[in-house]
Design a protein that fits this description.
Elements: H1 3-23, E1 25-29, E2 40-44, H2 51-58, E3 64-68, H3 75-82, E4 86-88, H4 95-106, E5 110-113, H5 130-138, E6 141-148, E7 167-172, H6 187-212
Parallel strand pairs: 1-7, 2-5, 2-6, 3-4, 3-5
Antiparallel strand pairs: 6-7
Length: 214
């Protein structure tokens, strides 16, 4: 993408680190697994709205996330665009968002995706095919990311936020690439790739929970 997007994502990473550091105690495991250069897709589970800023803060490289368009209302939209984030219409095919996301990867940057498509219990039980599409089109490395603790409810002083000064663990997994069966990008190949990705993500989440005791 353009240079302003690159610079904006770097600024966003610093802002996220400051805000997240002031609110919670984060523990980052496996950040060294994120390739130091080249296109990367960070694929994270999604249990709370703070998950995006938390991953941005803990990633060793600036991240540009696909973010629901509803979050771009008013001044927030100006800010999110300024720090390189990409708005996406989740209700309809969004060619502009797809083009922008592929541009991030073509430029050798890091794209952040929550493949569940929306907040859930954060267990990768149902993921959409968008992640597989981007991985197949770009040949980018996919790095699983487990965010643990952001969905905790006991001890919340502010209902909309995780418990302040609570611990949030961010665990980066082994990178992998995705290939279409037979080299063809058919719907069947996309579905097969999505199933393989889901198995890798759920396996990483299980391992992250074992390692952190969450």
């Amino acid at each position: 993408m353009t240079a302003p997007g690159v610079r904006g994502a770097a600024v966003g990473r610093r802002i996220a680190a400051g805000l997240v550091g002031a609110g919670w105690r984060t523990r980052t495991l496996g950040a060294w697994r994120v390739p130091a250069a080249g296109p990367v897709i960070l694929a994270g589970n999604h249990a709370h709205n703070v998950d995006g800023p938390v991953v941005m803060a803990c990633s060793p490289r600036p991240v540009r996330f696909l973010v629901k368009r509803e979050a771009f209302a008013g001044p927030a939209g100006v800010f999110l665009h300024a720090i390189g984030q990409i708005d996406v219409d989740r209700g309809h095919p969004d060619r502009a968002a797809v083009t922008a996301a592929l541009g991030v990867l073509e430029a050798g940057e890091v794209l952040g995706i929550f493949p569940e498509g929306t907040r859930s219990v954060g267990d990768f039980a149902a993921i959409r095919s968008g992640l597989a599409y981007f991985a197949l089109r770009s040949a980018a490395s996919v790095v699983p990311v487990a965010v643990l603790g952001s969905g905790d409810r006991p001890g919340r002083l502010i209902p909309a936020l995780p418990p302040l000064r609570g611990r949030i663990d961010v665990v980066f997994g082994e990178p992998f690439t995705v290939e279409a069966g037979g080299g063809r990008r058919t719907r069947a190949a996309l579905d097969e790739a999505t199933a393989r990705i889901q198995a890798r993500l759920t396996g990483h989440l299980k391992d992250a929970r074992r390692r952190t005791g969450r």
